[in-house]
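Meet my pick.
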Amino acid sequence: MHRVEHVMGFPVSLRIDDEDVPESAAHAVFAWLNEVDVRFSPFRPDSEVSRLDRGELSAPGADLTEILDLCEHYRLATGGAFDVRLPGRGLDPCAVVKGWSVQRAAELLRAAGARRFCLNAGGDVVAAGGPWRVGVRHPEHADRLCTVLELTDGAVATSARYERGDHIIDGRTGRPATGLLSLTVLAPTLTEADSVATAAFAMGAEGVEWAAGLPGCEVFAVNAERGVLRTPGFPTVAEQLSHDDGRCGSRP
């Protein structure tokens, strides 16, 4: 089964290799992701996030409470570099909502009996029953890969400047985080991988070591000097970077 839809502002691709999984499982995944967009998008004035931010709700619901608790966890863990309540801006928990919601979608697939699947949400991937090969895009050349990793059961997410420019803000300074070009995190769940990737990117160069020290996380990053920082356990299949062709240099 293979299905692609545009949800939450990016393409979501679902592949299920199990023959006995009903098509309703895919319907449930995309229905859930569309529900998340309606409920938690800060760009929708009637969403729960927007209404809470305007003071129209006395308290968030259970799901939004979980999301905001995760946001606060990473704010404290990064010393304020990751912050969804930046001065002069509305509440924006998107950095956590995406991974959290796609991980929930993966759990729906497992509950429906899926054992081998790959769910790709705008380049962030949660997969089961691998091995699956996942390419990490070069931060400066859209038609090239930095590396290819092998994913069996787990998730991988990348934060970078190439799609939306300097959109990740270091909450400690209020300025864009520019110490890294891209940072990819492998983790047991996409909730962790996506949140850690954004939080670490907001910290800049120091975020690489912070992310690498978290249990279950492996990291592949390209810094502003175009050097590669990679933890020993990052499951690289093929390295695509070299000084010779003017791309990125590599170091362990």
